[in-house]
Structures are given as C-alpha cells and as structure tokens.
Design goal:
heterodimer, A: 268 residues, Uridine Diphospho-n-acetylenolpyruvylglucosamine Reductase, domain 2, Uridine Diphospho-n-acetylenolpyruvylglucosamine Reductase, domain 3, Enolase-like, domain 1, 4-stranded antiparallel beta sheet, B: 153 residues, alpha+beta, Ubiquitin-like (UB roll), DNA polymerase, domain 1, 5-stranded mixed beta sheet, 5 helices, 15% strand, globular
C-alpha cells in the first residue's frame, strides 16, 4: 500500500514546525507509527507532512519538582530504559516497554502516540489516569492542557491545527499497575485498566471502553468510600460505552473491565 | 526529494518521492529483494531491517525519514568469513519452514541480541513478538536464537 502523494518538509526547530503547520491540512510526522498506517490506508490524505523527527531538543526526561517532564519525541524504547522515569514513574516506563513490539518501540514516540488519541492507547490511558499535563506550543505561545481535556474523541485530541505537543508532565508516583487484555501479544488492548495511588487517592483508567481513554470514576468513588477491590470493581463499566468489534463484544469488554479492575486494585 | 542513505556499508544518493516507503526504496530502487513485504501493516515483521543498528519495520518508515541513516538488510549480514552467526544458527537449527518471514526474523534477532546478548527463553519470545511465522515454526526459531546467543552473536 502506497500513501497518496504529499509534500514533505523537515522542521529544523519547533518554531519552524509551527509555522509549517499553518497550512490547513498539514500533519505532523514524528516516528510515523500512527500516521503512516493511516496514510497507507488513505484514511488521511494531508498535502504536507511536517517531519519533527530530528528535533533532538524534544528528547529529554527530567525531574521537575514533584513531576517528571518528558519531551514529546522520546521513543517508547527510550522511555522503557530511562532511569529517571523508572525511578519517578515506573508505571509509565514499564508500559512504554510493552507498547506494540520492539520494532514499533524503536520508532514510535510518546508524543505521536498520544496526539493520535487512539481510544485503546496504552500511554494515553496511563497519562489520563495520572492526571498528566500536555504542553503544547502554537503561534500564540505555550499552554498546558489537562489530561481530562486532552482526549476529545476517537483519534481526536485538543491540539489545534497549528499546535505542537512538546512535553508531557507526569506526577511522581510509586507502584501502579497496567493490566491489558489482548488476543495476540502485539495487539491493541481489547480492554486495559490502569490503577495507581496518588496523594492518598486511588486513580483508575480504562482503555478500549469508549471513544477515548476513560477514568473509572464510579470505581474511584467506591474505593474512596471504603469498598473492597471486588465491590469497587463491580462499577468498572458504569458510564462507559464499549464498542463491539472483532476483538470482543460490548458485553465482553464490560466483563473484562470489571475483572481487570479488580485485579489491578488488588495489586496496587 | 534528494536523500543519501548508507545501505550495507555503501552510500546511495537518490531522488525519491516523499511517499516512498523504505522497503520499496530498498527493493525496487536498490534491487535488494531480500527484505520481504508481508502484511504491509506493521504487524508481521517480514520487512524488518536495521536502521542505525536497531530493528524497524521498513514498510512503516519513509525513505526520506532514513535520509542520512545507516541501514542494514539481510544482504548485509554475511561477511567474508561466511554467514553471520544468527544466519548460521537459523541454518543449523532449521529456524524456518517456508522461509518468507526468515529475513525479518534474522534481522529482529540480530537487534534483540545486540540489546540483550544473553536473553532468557521468555525474553526471546517477547523480543520477537513483532515477527509472525505463518508456518508457526517458532520452536526452532527460538532454538536458533538461543544457539546464536551461545555463539556470542
């Protein structure tokens, strides 16, 4: 499969990338592992690709107070092995090491993955669960988008056409679990559940249970109210709208969400 | 767009359409047909090559993204001393059936052993999760990679 023709521009700086994105149907190319499959299927037909893959100043992981700041161009393979991330937010490092397969992790980036906003995204679900911040730069400057506002719909983020995701900020957190049910090891999650303790509260997130990664608010409230993992997990599918597709029916996904939520709660 | 890619040690200057996938650049412009196209959807790993020493699926990399990079394909593994140790191990342990997935498995194994020279059985299975063998010949592939690791590949 060959993508439709497009023009290609390699950005030499974040500012240049933002300027190039001024063209209405331009798209950002980072590692390409979300975008190229869409181009090959011709689900996307941008007239211009803006390649940010060489903006090495977007590859860093550093501590910043009680947060970890992660440059958007870190590849999954980089994050899986990063000592600062392993220490400060091991849940994200371990999950990055489990995205796709080794070849995908050698190319795919955290920024590209979350900007793609797949409802079954591993990293997106973790970041939503941890109340991460998404730093975007555009022609009018920089803003930080809260995780709860970032995922707007299936394959739709809150980023404006001319905004570039430059950094992701996560709180330091110990432990946490991400349990993913897949039919084959390298598949997207049929359903996945993230759970972590943050400042005394239990946060729970779901992948594959609706048009975006979701928070299992009813579960979180039940845990806060003193419910056992099994009782709290019974609420896992409340307020969700899981799809039915080749990987499983809506009912099956709801069942998986309850089972995986109970297991995750028992393990944190 | 003009690009310059070093493939198996030889530098190639070429003019490509931006939409040219690396695998088709290798196969059709350079005539290196050892790299196979399997699923064409980043799933099967048949098109795996090394990009700056790391395994990638060349059906999901644009040739323009590899501009300036160093690419190794299956044709670039064997040296004057004969087969690469991973190739030799696949040969000795019959790590193939029809052979279509083999170049990809060999390249993925080379990358795996570079990152983890002494992998456990589970680490080999997980390390090759991006490669599919439709003949399901996984058992001997595993044995071949274990042998290559013992041989210090």
């Amino acid at each position: 499969m060959i993508p439709a023709a497009f023009e290609y521009a390699r950005a030499g700086s974040v500012d240049e990338a933002i300027e190039l994105l001024g063209r209405e149907d331009a798209k950002v190319l980072a590692g390409g592992h979300s975008l190229l499959p869409l181009l090959k299927l011709r689900f996307a037909r941008p007239s211009l690709l803006v390649d940010i893959g060489r903006l090495d100043d977007l590859r860093y992981v550093r501590e910043d107070g009680d947060q970890i700041a992660i440059g958007a161009l870190n590849r999954h393979a980089d994050l899986a092995l990063d000592p600062v991330l392993a220490q400060g937010c091991g849940l994200l490092a371990r999950t990055a090491g489990n995205v796709g397969d080794p070849q995908v992790r050698h190319r795919g980036t955290i920024g590209g993955s979350v900007a793609h906003a797949d409802p079954a995204s591993d990293l997106g679900t973790i970041l939503l669960t941890l109340d991460a911040g998404f730093v975007a730069r555009g022609p009018d400057g920089e803003r930080t988008i809260a995780a709860s506002d970032f995922f707007v719909g299936p394959f739709e983020s809150a980023l404006e056409q001319q905004e570039l995701l430059t950094e992701i900020r996560v709180p330091k957190v110990d432990g946490g679990r991400y349990l993913k049910h897949v039919r084959r090891q390298q598949d997207w999650a049929t359903v996945a559940v993230a759970a972590a303790r943050l400042n005394g509260d239990v946060h729970v997130g779901l992948a594959g249970m609706g048009p975006t990664p979701l928070r299992a608010r009813a579960v979180e409230e039940a845990v806060a109210g003193g419910a056992s993992p099994a009782d709290a997990a019974a609420h896992a599918a409340e307020g969700t709208d899981p799809p039915s597709d080749v990987s499983g029916s809506s009912e099956y996904r709801a069942h998986l969400a309850r089972v995986l939520t109970r297991q995750a709660l028992e393990q944190i | 767009m003009k690009i310059s890619i070093t493939v198996n040690g030889a530098k190639h200057d070429a003019d490509v359409e931006p939409r040219t996938l690396l695998v088709y650049f290798l196969r059709e412009q350079l005539g290196l047909k050892g790299t196979n196209v399997g699923c064409d959807t980043t799933s099967c790993g048949a098109c795996t090559v090394l990009l700056d020493g790391e395994s990638v699926k060349s059906c999901t990399v644009l040739a323009v993204q590899a501009d300036g990079a160093d690419v190794t394909t299956i044709e670039g593994l064997a040296g004057d001393g004969g087969l690469h140790p991973v190739q030799q191990a696949f040969h000795e342990h019959h790590g193939l059936q029809c052979g279509y997935c083999t170049p990809g498995f060999v390249m993925a194994s080379v990358s795996l052993l570079k990152e983890n020279p002494n992998p456990s059985e589970e680490e080999i299975r997980l390390g090759l999760e991006g490669n599919l063998c439709r003949c399901t010949g996984y058992h001997n592939i595993l044995r071949a990679v274990q042998a290559a690791a013992r041989a210090g590949a």
